[in-house]
Structures are given as structure tokens and as C-alpha cells.
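During the reporting period, we have paired protein sequences with C-alpha cells. One record among many follows, to show the layout:
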Amino acid sequence: MKALMKTTVVALAALWAGAVLAENTGAGNQAGHMEKLAILLDLTDAQKPQVQSILEGEHAQMKALMEQARAAGGKPDFQALHAARQQINQDTVTKLSGVLSPAQLKKFETLKQMHAHGFGHRGGGPGGAPQSAPATN
């Protein structure tokens, strides 16, 4: 049973990651991304706006963090950026734990981890080299 669950999560994550990476950024695509995530996590109608709000907040925090790093000029402190990013991610998981069931939260964490490791990224960079997509955190 555990193996079936793992296989299902991996397959769903692969589909999700591939679909997300195939999309361009933009408001219309964010809605599509949210709809796919709702399907993969089996979100209820009540959960959808809550999860969307939490993820939009995370995205805004990440964007502000990157803008802050750019505005500082010079060489960024990658260790500090990494720590801040980890804290934002942890805060997001904490917020989601109040909305999602334990099974949904585990699926979400698996999907996020797989996306962070580039699962589903396609080739297409110069010379056919794999090209990483921008983070959607």
C-alpha cells in the first residue's frame, strides 16, 4: 500500500512539475497552476482560496527577498538568502498545516521538493543543455 502511495505521489508530482514548467508566468497561468495543484492535492472548495492566499503570500515574500538582494548591490550573501528562503518555506508549511489534512500536506511537500530538485525540467538551453525554469515559490 505504501509503495502504491509513493508511486502515485511521484507520478502526480511529475505531471504537476511538467505542467507548471511548461507554462509562462502571468495571472492567467497562476490560476491554471492553482487549479492543477487543487486537483493534485484534492482540495475542497473551502481550501482552494485559503491555499491560494498562503501561496501568493509566500510568492510575494520571495519576490521581496530577491528585490532586496538586488537593491543591496554587490555580491549577495547567499547563506543569508538561503536561510531567509528556508524560513519563508517553513512559515508557508506551518500556515498550510492549518488548512490541509496531513495527507494533503505530505503531498504538497513532496511536490515542492521535487520541483526544487528540477524534476520535470526539460532541455532547451543553448546546445541542447537542460535549462532550469524560474522558481515558482
Summary: The chain is about 70% helix and 0% strand. The chain has one domain: 2-124. Residues 2-124 form one domain. The CA atoms of residues 89 and 104 lie 16 Å apart.
